[in-house]
Write a structure and sequence with these properties.
globular, 50% helix, binds flavin mononucleotide
């Protein structure tokens, strides 16, 4: 195993941080590596906001489903899918005049552009996470940044053609918090990687897929009232939890804002 694969295999999310700040040159290396991430059409359809203001971190710790460790993270990066920069550049470059001259209707960023920009932003984020890990800096994604759009839009001054797709918390791991902590498991490859076409799974395959997890974690008990298996538990705890309902509302609001001009 080479060192890159080894880092990936050993990586885990880090939510408890040492008080040691991340040195400027380490941050610089991580950001340099991040900006080398592949990007659609080499357009760099993303922006990164370093969240340094204590009050903003404190707010995120609440608005992102009350995760207090966000406020304690020494370094917090917000990754935005961003078509605003290119759209502004199109306007600055006289694309409206160009379209009028050539009898074209100027197109606005739409759904596909949003998805492409999300791909760019997430790939950049994961590049940052891997680069950080290789330097001994732990990280944890916060998907809940997609919730409470209106609050985040106001805090970060987000224009229409941006989308806060993920937040990454960074810090040197608190060694005490790592003691006895096992790596999380993953589903067996055969349930995830298919040959040539998609394979829907049946009851027997699901039973096999969850065998390890059932034995290790669930054991017929649930912290969700009335749930008798992992499917019921996960449905209630993750898929239809309050945070998921809010995330879907918030993402709908962002998308409606993004595609408003397109639908007009
Ligand atoms: C898109 C995404 C969103 C996530 N959001 C959160 C989050 O809000 N809070 C958190 O503590 N972990 C979050 N995580 C981390 C996952 O819980 C973690 O990756 C998963 O449990 C596997 O554990 P591992 O990363 O230690 O292998 C997120 C991960 C991803 C990829």
């Amino acid at each position: 195993m080479n060192s890159t694969i080894e880092n990936i295999m050993q990586r885990r999310s880090i939510r408890a941080y040492d008080s040691r700040p991340i040195e400027a040159d380490v941050k610089d290396q991580i950001l340099k590596a991040t900006l080398r991430a592949p990007t659609a059409g080499n357009l760099m359809l993303y922006s990164i906001i370093e969240v340094t203001a204590t009050e903003k971190k404190n707010t995120l710790a609440k608005t992102c489903d009350n995760q207090a460790f966000i406020a304690r993270a020494p370094w917090v990066l917000l990754f935005l899918a961003d078509y605003q920069r290119w759209y502004d550049y199109f306007l600055t470059s006289g694309v409206e005049r160009f379209c009028a001259r050539n009898a074209l209707t100027m197109r606005l960023p739409a759904e596909g552009d949003l998805m492409l920009a999300c791909c760019d932003a997430i790939i950049a984020a994961q590049t940052a996470a891997i680069a950080a890990d290789s330097l001994g800096v732990g990280s944890c994604y916060i998907g809940d940044i997609m919730e409470n759009y209106e609050a985040h839009q106001a805090i970060f001054d987000l224009p229409r053609y941006t989308f806060p797709i993920c937040l990454l918390c960074f810090g040197y791991p608190d060694p005490k918090a790592q003691v006895g902590r096992k790596q999380t498991s993953r589903f067996d490859r055969k349930f995830i990687v298919f040959q040539d076409s998609y394979k829907r799974l049946g009851a027997d395959e699901f039973a096999e897929m969850f065998l390890g997890e059932t034995e290790r974690g669930f054991k017929g008990r649930s912290n969700i009232e009335g749930a008798v298996n992992i499917g019921q538990q996960t449905y209630q705890r993750k898929f239809s939890a309050d945070f998921a309902i809010e995330m879907n509302r918030s993402v709908r609001a962002i998308m409606q804002n993004w595609i408003k001009g397109w639908a007009d």
